[in-house]
Each structure stands twice: as structure tokens, then as C-alpha cells.
TrEMBL record:
<dbReference type="GO" id="GO:0046685">
    <property type="term" value="P:response to arsenic-containing substance"/>
</dbReference>
<keyword id="KW-0560">Oxidoreductase</keyword>
<dbReference type="Pfam" id="PF01451">
    <property type="entry name" value="LMWPc"/>
</dbReference>
<feature type="domain" description="Phosphotyrosine protein phosphatase I">
    <location>
        <begin position="6"/>
        <end position="142"/>
    </location>
</feature>
<dbReference type="InterPro" id="IPR036196">
    <property type="entry name" value="Ptyr_pPase_sf"/>
</dbReference>
<dbReference type="GO" id="GO:0008794">
    <property type="term" value="F:arsenate reductase (glutaredoxin) activity"/>
</dbReference>
<dbReference type="InterPro" id="IPR023485">
    <property type="entry name" value="Ptyr_pPase"/>
</dbReference>
<keyword id="KW-0059">Arsenical resistance</keyword>
<protein>
    <submittedName>
        <fullName>Arsenate reductase</fullName>
        <ecNumber>1.20.4.1</ecNumber>
    </submittedName>
</protein>
């Protein structure tokens, strides 16, 4: 493998939670091999629960911001990872040799609507955060299998 970092875009519906967590984990855990980005089909702003649970895990994503894919025009990605079903269905075509893969994670804001307490909500976000971490830890090797 060369010294060139792999440019990975984590794409989600609103770029507020799952894709932001994935970008944060990739920055924290894989900075030597991955140049991570995140964007959304829409722009929903940063999710405060996502920022809180990532901070609990020692990863500060408060400096990241919600953005549309168009804001990353000109960046040639090696891999695009859709992290939700809607983004996978709406994923635009990427030119060149960009590999597009889908690795779906449940939507914490949707799951949190059924929670009765703040602790239950945070538990949902923490579970998805940890699932995303496990996926990011498998990168870039796992991409060959997808």
C-alpha cells in the first residue's frame, strides 16, 4: 500500500449524526491511512446528542459542520460509504473509480423518539456510536470485502 491516504466520504441523509460520528472516528482512529469527509443529501445541522456521546468517548466533533455533498465538489473520493438507507437510495453517481458501498446504521434521532428518559436516548446514541466505531476500526481493510 502506498503512503497516499484513502479519501472516504461518509454520506447520510442530513449529515447531522451518523456520518458525523463516522468522520470523527476516522479522524481520531485512522488519521494515518484515511482522509475522512462527511456530507448529506440534505443539511440538518449538528446533532447535540451525537456531539455529546462522541465527546464522552474522547472524540470532539464540535468543530465539524453539517454540509451538502455539493460543498465538497472537486474532491475526488476513493470510497463513498452510505451510512443510512435513504442516502444509499439517493446516492448520486460518482465519476472515475470511486467505489460506493452501503453500511447502514440505525438512526438514533428516530429511535430516540420512542425513549421516555434522557438516559434511554443517550443509550441509543451510544450504541450506534459504538457500532460506527467498530466499523471504522475495520477500515480500510474491510472495504475490500464490501
Amino acid at each position: 500500500m502506498s503512503d497516499k491516504k484513502i479519501k472516504i466520504l461518509f454520506l447520510c441523509t442530513g449529515n447531522s449524526c451518523r456520518s458525523q460520528m463516522a468522520e470523527g472516528w476516522a479522524r481520531a482512529l485512522k488519521r494515518a491511512t484515511i482522509e475522512p469527509y462527511s456530507a448529506g443529501i440534505e443539511k440538518h445541522g449538528m446533532n447535540p446528542y451525537a456531539m455529546k456521546v462522541m465527546g464522552e468517548a474522547g472524540v470532539d466533533i464540535s468543530g465539524q459542520h453539517s454540509k451538502l455533498l455539493a460543498e465538497l465538489a472537486g474532491v475526488v473520493f476513493d470510497v463513498v460509504v452510505t451510512v443510512c438507507g435513504h442516502a444509499n437510495e439517493q446516492c448520486p453517481w460518482f465519476p472515475g473509480k470511486t467505489k460506493v458501498v452501503h453500511v447502514g446504521f440505525e438512526d438514533p434521532p428516530a429511535l430516540a423518539k420512542a425513549c421516555r428518559t434522557e438516559e434511554e436516548k443517550l443509550a441509543v446514541y451510544r450504541r450506534v456510536r459504538d457500532e460506527i466505531r467498530a466499523f471504522v476500526e475495520s477500515l480500510p481493510e474491510a472495504l475490500a470485502e464490501l
